[in-house]
Design brief:
Length: 247
Amino acid sequence: MDFRARKIHHQSNPSNHGTKQLAACIATLGESSFAPARWFSRLYVMLFQGTPLLVQIFVIYYGFGQISFLRSSFAWPLLAQAYWCAILTLSLNTSAYGAEIIRGATMAVPEREIEAGRAIGMAGLLLRRRVIWPQALRYGLANYGNEAILLLKATSLASVITLMDVTGLAYRLVSKTYRSEEIFTVAGLIYLAMTFVIATCVHMLERHLAPVAGSDPDKPSFPEFSWNRSRKKQPRCPAHPLSKPSG
């Protein structure tokens, strides 16, 4: 895999800060009390989830060149390159799925823990940063890891717009050597190795964020107090052997 192939795999990874921030923004808009913000979030997610990734790549790579004001804008030097079109398409597509993962993870946080945070004076961003987001990370980590693996395999579609990733390089070697079985097997092993690395990292992070062994993950992190607890009777001290019995 050449330098550009390694570079596109690195920058199109969902751990990229821009993609994560965009997904978090879309998820936040989806939970907003402002109706147009919720509509925009739903339309964005429906648009990128309801259309194939290959069609999105074609629309951005071939379709943007048909828009006159884009050709005269400052972004055209980037949009005219297949590399940046692939990065943009994969980032937008991943952010739509990531927004739904974040939304589902935040909804999975127990309501009693949110109420406990509000009871001690937390609200707004402080409540999200201290109570909601840390637990949402644990709930949504497995799904986000799956999305990272799917995105890694989706980079093979970038070869259709003349971008030389692992699959595009394999196609070029097959056209020269006609040894398709060996070359595509090696390409598959490269994808398998990168997928194994991502899955191992996600698994290690899950183990790090897992609750303490023996604790119930459904119970809230805050201690529960009950004012109706029955007090245990204290055992009486045994009578001295030389003392006289009363009565």
